Amino acid sequence: MRLLLDTHSFLWAALSPELLSDAARTAILDPSNDIFVSAISYWEISLKYGLGKLELEGITPEDLSEATTQLGFGPMDLDPSDAASFWRLPKTGHGDPFDRMLVWQAIQGDCTLVSRDGGLAAYERDGLKLLR
Description:
By secondary structure, this protein is α/β, with parallel strands linked by helices. It is built from six helices and five strands, in the order βααβααβααββ. About 40% of the residues lie in helices and about 15% in strands. It has a five-stranded parallel beta sheet. The radius of gyration is 14 Å and the shape is globular.
């Protein structure tokens, strides 16, 4: 299975795995699964860190790239065609642009999005596979 971690799932996997659900932790630890972290998540972390809306204990956003490699996760770049076709993602009540792009990347990349964000369930009717 291909898993795309949303931003908080990535931070939890890297820094506080006990915060992940049992299902998410099991899927992430399963060596038969491919785990990805989107460039969108790094951007969101960096932005929120720079604004003082996110605290990281003893690390900076730049350190997370190495943590990704150490955890065996792969990077997922933002493909220009995904960015250009993002307008096709149906509008729901979920307004966070970072989460919406992660949803679109998961749908386009045939990934299961790992997220505890209940607002994303509305996208399951549009093809999103979600692991809470």
